[in-house]
Write a structure and sequence with these properties.
heterodimer, A: 554 residues, mainly alpha, two-stranded antiparallel ribbon, 26 helices, 4% strand, globular, B: 454 residues, alpha/beta, Alkaline Phosphatase, subunit A, 2 domains, eight-stranded mixed beta sheet, two-stranded antiparallel sheet, 14 helices, 14 strands, 32% helix
């Protein structure tokens, strides 16, 4: 059965006979069907491409399944999943695949990882959430994404939460900000939810916004490293002598400091009415009985807010397409215009109409023809690339690469924190995309540019290639041991069957596609050369995981 | 209590100097005040100390975990057993007046080549935060996570050093305490060798692979080029083009001459014995070979570490003789080869350890974190040898004289390397980020270590 599929494909590729290598490959990567706009999104993109005189090409089914798995759930498809999909002849199979992927648990894993970078989910330096809190924060994000919590609620909960860092996940948004002054917090809020870098703002605007965050306080409890985030309108924390007892280390009650002044006999007066200014210039006198954070959040999440929906739909687009309509996605300002304003406006409109349904935006993008363009560029002008004339190849995230290699070989990696985390247990088979805490890591993840989660900038994650990464991929004992001893890949090497079948299995497992005739020949010649068969088979697998096709989403 | 000398520095600052450095207001100019005062204290009042850049390479021996200072390089025999614990004996060195504990007989013979800063202080007792302060000069908790001195050094030497070995090498495991490259990006990430230099063959991770012959390396590379078909199609993508270029550099190391630098079998067996047949000793030898190859910054991350809350004296008995042998051999060898003048060697942990022994269970004679006062060893690269800077009190617990802050040492090193520590580092978002803290960052400082630089 398996052999029949393979043969029929070979036949399909070889029909006219004497095809060149390149002709074969075009069929592997691209579809012969010309793209037709499949909805409003496509209509807007195609109109722009028409003006630029670019005729896009669609990707093949094999490219699509790999792109969709890696892009939507950060996980490689298995060889069987690839075979199934390629065999399926229904016309809407791509759309059905997207629906299936959006329901997988790995969707929540992978997108919690992406949000973890932005929200700085990390136990240790520099944000110092502490392990329990990092996990509470992550669990809340993960659950929100799994249930597809409306985005306005997701953000409002984070901005207005109060309570224990161990028990109320979203309060850690504030604790994960390094500079906890009102302006530091305002700056982080602007970056995260408005896509704005306040370094470019007039100082006045930042200061006006900072007032909303001037009544947040933090206090310890009797549990080690527990901290309550709360609205503190009377600034009780600032009152001299108002000492909150707590424990620094287990078993020791923190004594009142010797130099603490006596508390005043009268309770402090609430602060007078505060005047704050929203970033759009509207001023407001804050009512004394309302948490100013709520006032800000309610302004932020309205459909009319000029930043809120723009920021999130552009972020999702950038995550899926490799580049924002506004580039970079967290640099929204008047002098950095979108490459296609109509497209951005359309996504915002859809987002509001769907009541802030993030998966609706995912579906719109993932099911568009635009998402399905071939990655082989027909036009390399910057304006063509900025308008998504071809799919932008992206180096896979560190976590995704190592998960893929582990899946292919049937091996696992050890993830630890350099600082002992007494309550941390990472099961051996947990994929790297599911790690909650940015402090829990491995040399591979660090080397391949996982985000340090210090600033929440999107580009803190670096997928830029450097030689040391190649030394690791090409020649490290870490990768070598996986290829030589991994139980899954050994099954592929050791099964008694014709070489062609083994080569085909390696291609399906590693590159998610069938090999071409030429590729089978190259691999077979290598097997037949004087080296031992097993060693040669390892080298073929090694070459495939070091190929651009494996290391990039394309 | 630390004398607040840095405040006096503020009063010394001249108006001209303040304007030149762009200092505004009277408050919070601790760093500018004291570092500026160096420039204005001489009779001729030069704008900046005129120093020929001397340092080409740095070897940083990082005693992570924090080595006890009163057990080693700042002994206080009069403080008694409560403080000295099991190491009551002190020995003279080849410099009159400088004494070490008897754990360091070989280093004692090289005392003319190094100096000891016995008054280093930052008062921070957390591993990560203290390691960050010692290697960046910045205080943790600011908006930015700064790169370590190794990454900064590699960045500023990028036009001078064009070798194929990465510019910032760590023997053998990374510290992992913080992201050392910071916002400078992965090009300045420390390259950790892995492997063991004391093994039969030093298997540098990614460079020297076990069980793969050169023939097989070449054959599989050819196979990779043949099978890497998409790369040709995407050759116009800048990301893919960068990756191919990086791959070629990696292959120069794997199959070219780069790997020879790590091959200790090319060294004289007797010299290898002198360095000590242990991981630390042989790491020192590799570090010297890397200096000869021009690599700008090398860290030896002490294998095993020094975080001796318990099992303290046993660990010290095991590790100190190795540290003594390797470091002494390194200094002597660099000197003999004429490399010490252009190579700065420094050896310290992120802090010292509590000076009073904790005899209570479960520590049973342990020492805990102590950042108030500890000792740093510096040598070469224009630093004078045979000196002691500052002093600690009678139990080595607090600074008695001449506090030195991490930022002062780093500023001195940068100065001797011809690196302007007031320059900005390239931040990806263009956020101003100085090599060392700005005056407004309120980082304590007492200025350059003028007494150690010629």
């Amino acid at each position: 059965m398996r052999k029949a599929t393979w043969l029929s494909l070979l036949l399909a590729l070889a029909v006219p006979g004497g095809w060149l290598f390149a002709a074969e490959l075009s069929e592997v990567y691209e579809s012969a069907t010309p793209p037709k706009p499949a909805g409003e999104l496509d209509r807007i993109v195609f109109a722009k491409l028409d003006k630029l005189g670019v005729k896009p090409v669609l990707c093949s089914d094999a490219v699509f399944i790999r792109r969709a798995y890696l892009g939507v759930i950060g996980t490689m498809p298995s060889a069987d999943e690839v075979r199934e999909f390629l065999k399926d002849e229904s016309p809407d199979k791509r759309s059905k695949l997207i629906d299936r992927l959006l329901e997988r648990r790995e969707f929540a894993d992978y997108w919690s990882m992406k949000w973890g970078d932005i929200l700085r989910i990390k136990a240790e330096i520099p944000v110092n959430l502490w392990p329990n809190a990092a996990r509470a924060y992550h669990r809340w994000v993960w659950g929100s994404l799994l249930e597809n919590k409306p985005y306005d609620r997701f953000v409002r909960e984070m901005l207005t939460a109060s309570g224990s860092n161990f028990r109320v996940g979203p309060v850690n948004f504030y604790r994960a900000i390094q500079d906890k002054t009102p302006t530091g917090i305002a700056s982080a809020v602007a970056l995260t939810f408005m896509g704005a870098r306040t370094d470019n703002w007039p100082q006045q605007r930042l200061e006006g916004m900072a007032v909303f965050f001037s009544q947040i306080s933090y206090k310890p409890t009797s549990e080690w490293k527990e901290e309550i985030v709360f609205w503190d309108p009377t600034q009780v924390k600032a009152v001299p002598g108002n000492f909150v007892p707590g424990r620094d280390t287990p078993g020791t009650i923190r004594p009142k400091p010797k130099d603490a002044p006596e508390p005043p006999s009268l309770p402090p007066e609430p602060a007078g009415p505060l005047k704050a200014v929203f970033p759009d210039g509207t001023s407001i006198v804050l009512p004394p009985d309302r948490d100013p954070r709520e006032v800000f959040a309610d302004w932020l999440i309205t459909p009319q807010n000029p930043w809120f929906t723009k920021c999130i739909v552009n972020r999702i687009w950038a995550w899926l397409m490799g580049r924002g309509i506004i580039h970079e996605p967290d640099d929204i300002r008047d002098d950095n215009p979108p490459s296609n304003p109509e497209l951005l406006a359309y996504l915002q409109k859809e987002f509001v109409a769907s009541k802030y349904d993030m998966r609706h935006i995912y579906r719109l993008i993932l099911k568009s023809q635009t998402y399905q363009f071939s990655s082989i560029p027909r036009d390399t002008r910057p304006e063509a690339l900025a308008n998504f004339a071809s799919y932008l190849p992206q180096r896979l995230d560190a976590e995704v690469i190592i998960d893929a290699i582990n899946k292919i070989t049937g091996t696992t990696d050890l993830y630890t924190s350099p600082i002992p985390e007494p309550y941390t247990y990472i099961p051996r088979d947990m994929p790297a995309i599911a790690l909650a805490d940015g402090s829990v890591t491995s040399p591979f993840l660090a080397l391949f540019g996982r985000s340090a989660r210090a600033t929440g900038m999107a580009n803190e994650r670096s997928n830029k290639p450097v030689p040391a990464q190649w030394l690791h991929m090409l020649n490290s004992s870490h990768i070598y041991n996986k290829l030589t001893t991994g139980p899954s890949i050994r099954t592929v090497f050791e099964a008694k069957r014709p070489a062609e079948e083994m080569i085909q299995d390696l291609y399906l497992t590693i590159l998610s596609r069938y090999p071409t005739e030429t590729e089978v020949k190259i691999a077979k010649d290598y097997l037949d050369a004087n080296r031992g068969r097993r060693e040669a088979a390892i080298d073929i697998a090694w070459a495939l995981i070091n190929s651009t096709e494996f290391l990039y989403s394309h | 209590m630390i004398p607040q000398n840095h405040l006096q520095g503020v009063t010394k600052i001249t108006r001209r100097e303040a304007l030149r450095r762009g200092v505004h207001g009277a408050g919070g100019m601790m760093l500018a005040g004291s570092l500026a005062s160096v420039a204005t204290s001489g009779e001729a009042a030069p704008e900046k100390p005129k120093l020929q850049p001397k340092i080409k390479s740095v070897i940083q021996i990082f005693l992570w975990g924090g080595m006890s200072h009163n057990d080693t390089w700042d002994p206080k025999p009069k403080s008694g057993r409560d403080y000295m614990g099991e190491f009551m004996d002190v020995i003279d060195t080849n410099v009159p007046g400088i004494q070490l504990t008897s754990l360091f007989p070989m280093l004692a013979k090289q005392a003319d080549k190094f100096s000891l800063i016995r008054s280093m202080t930052h008062r921070n007792n957390g591993h990560e935060t203290a390691a960050y302060i010692m290697q960046t000069g910045h205080l943790p908790g600011g908006r930015l996570a700064y790169p370590s001195i190794g990454a900064v050094f590699a960045y500023f030497k990028r036009n001078e050093y064009k070798g194929i070995i990465p510019p910032y090498v760590v023997l053998t495991r990374p510290q992992g305490r913080f992201s050392e490259e910071g916002f400078l990006g992965p090009l300045y990430k420390p390259f950790a060798t892995g492997g063991d230099p004391n093994a039969q063959r030093f298997e540098v991770e990614g460079v020297v692979a076990r069980g793969i012959t050169d023939d097989r390396q070449k054959a599989r590379r050819e196979l990779l080029y043949k099978l890497d078909v998409l790369s040709e199609r995407l050759k116009d993508s800048p990301q893919v083009a960068d990756a191919k270029q990086a791959r070629e550099i990696a292959y120069e190391l794997i199959l070219g001459s780069g790997r020879d630098v790590f091959d200790l079998n090319k060294e004289d067996a007797k010299l290898r014995d002198t360095y000590g047949r242990h991981t630390f000793g042989q790491s020192c030898l590799v570090a010297r070979r890397l200096v000869e190859a021009g690599v700008p910054y090398i860290v030896i991350n002490y294998p095993g570490g020094w975080d001796t809350h318990s099992n303290h004296f046993t660990t010290m008995r095991r590790q100190c003789p190795q540290l003594d042998q390797g470091l002494a051999a390194l200094l002597a060898d660099l000197h003999d080869r004429g490399l010490l003048e252009s190579t700065f060697v420094w050896c310290t942990g992120e802090f010292g350890r509590t000076t009073k022994v904790d005899w209570q269970p479960p520590w049973n004679g342990g020492r805990h974190h102590w950042g108030n006062c500890f000792t740093v060893l510096v040598a070469g690269g224009g630093f004078k040898g045979g000196r002691v800077v500052g002093s600690s009190d009678e139990t080595a617990t607090e600074v008695a004289e001449r506090p030195v802050y991490p930022v002062d040492l780093l500023a001195t090193v940068y100065t001797l390397a011809g690196i302007d520590y007031t320059a900005n580092l390239p931040h990806p978002e263009g956020i101003p980020a100085r090599v060392l803290p700005e005056p407004s960052d309120k980082v304590k400082s007492t200025g350059l270590l003028t007494e150690l630089i010629a």
